[in-house]
Every structure is written in C-alpha cells, then in structure tokens.
Specification:
six-stranded mixed β-sheet; 8 helices; globular; zinc; hydrolase
C-alpha cells in the first residue's frame, strides 16, 4: 500500500493520499485548509488518479478544500450525516468565529456528489478496502477508516481527531463529548492489534501498541488509569 501525506494550512491538518501503489488510483483523506495545491502536487509526483475523498469529520480544518478538490477531479466525497451541516455552516460547528481573514480563503458548501457514511460499512475504493467505524466524541459524526493487514504492511487506522500520538481530540466544541470520545476509544481503538499504524488528523504517526502503553486517555478507556483532564489539542 502507498500512503503520502502532508500537513495543510493554518491548522496543520494532515491530508493523506492512499493507493495500492504509486501510479494507481487513490483515495484522499481530509483535504483541509489550503490542501488543494498539496494534493495536486502529490498526484503529479506519484502518478496518482483520485477517485474519492473520505472525511473523518466535518470541522473546517479537515474539509476546507473538499469542494475544489472534488470539483477539479469530478469525484465524490464521503461524510457521516451527523456532520453534514458543517460543510455549509462551519462556524456553527465551532461555536465561534473563524475570522474574516481565513473565511476569505475558504470554499464553503457541499461537493456535487456527497455520500453518507454509516458505522461498519466497508468502502471498496481505488482497489482498497476501508472499514468505517463511527467514533463520536470530537464531533457527533466523527469516523475512522481502517485498512486490513497484508503480507507487506500492517493495518492502518486513519483516526482523524479521535486519537493522536499521546493525546486525543478536544471535546469542548458543539457536539463534543468527553464521555462519548472515551467510549469511542474503547470500542474502536482498544480492540485493534498493537501493530496497527495510526495516522491521525494532527501530529506524528504512532501505533496502537505505543498508545496503549503510553497514552493516558487510551489507558483510562481501558480502565487502567483514573480519568485525565479533557484535552485541548487540535482545532
């Protein structure tokens, strides 16, 4: 499996392009603020052909480029219905103003072909199989995407803002819930193999094994530690 990624825009949100191999069809994960140019550069560099965009949740730092990217490539986007309103009203999703300077750089709205995600569905896209797990807590419509292990590569979890290296997504925005995100960690992350590579919405990659051993939130979800304070990392 081939994965290329880069941090995009003012919030440094990780955008990923995923394909069976370089030179083949690919899926784009979370094209956020100012991600369109980076996506195009990766497509050219690696000879990729995008066939879909998949979104871990609806916050503007993860979806700001979905309209131009989907429009330029004539491809669909996938998002959980609980977060659909965020595409057209991003400030309502945050409970505060984004700021006029940034708003002037954003393309607000839905792509022409927007498809809904449901818990447990398996997407067959670009020769890949992505398993969707609904993981509310950061937002009501947060999801993760899992790829299976192969002989060559371990399983991969695109965790969005559910799980970071050493932390988890913040829960103080509208629709956020610390208790819900802890349940999502227990249901979605704890059953995974330690070798699972975690590619999150912000920061460095990690593994489930490393987080199981060191992340206080994942340890608390497993009942091994008292509850830590709610995090403030991410948008």
């Amino acid at each position: 499996m081939f994965i290329a990624g880069f941090p995009a825009g003012a919030w440094g949100t990780n955008c990923y392009l995923v394909a069976p191999a370089a030179g083949e069809e690919c899926v784009i994960v979370d094209p956020g603020h100012q991600a369109a140019a980076g996506v195009e550069a990766m497509v050219r560099e690696h000879g990729l052909k995008p066939v879909a965009v998949v979104l871990t949740h609806g916050h503007i730092d993860h979806v700001a480029s979905v309209v131009p990217v989907c429009g330029a490539k004539d491809i669909p986007a996938y998002l959980h219905p609980e977060d659909r309103f965020m595409l057209t009203d991003p400030e309502k999703a945050l409970g505060r103003s984004i700021g006029q300077q940034l708003m002037g750089e954003l393309t607000i709205g839905e792509p022409a072909d927007l498809r809904e995600l449901t818990d447990g569905v398996e997407l067959e896209l670009a020769g890949l199989r992505l398993t969707v797990d609904h993981a509310p807590g950061h937002t009501k419509g947060s999801v993760t995407f899992r790829t299976p292990a192969t002989d060559q590569v371990p399983p991969v979890l695109f965790s969005g803002d559910l799980l970071f290296a050493g932390s988890i997504g913040r829960t103080d925005f509208p629709g956020g819930s610390h208790s819900a995100i802890m349940r999502s960690l227990a249901r979605v992350c704890l059953p995974l193999d330690d070798a699972t590579v975690v590619l999150s919405g912000h920061g460095d990659q990690t593994t489930i094994g490393r987080e199981r051993a060191t992340n206080p939130y994942l340890q608390q979800a497993a009942g091994a530690l008292p509850a830590p304070a709610a995090p403030r990392r991410g948008m």
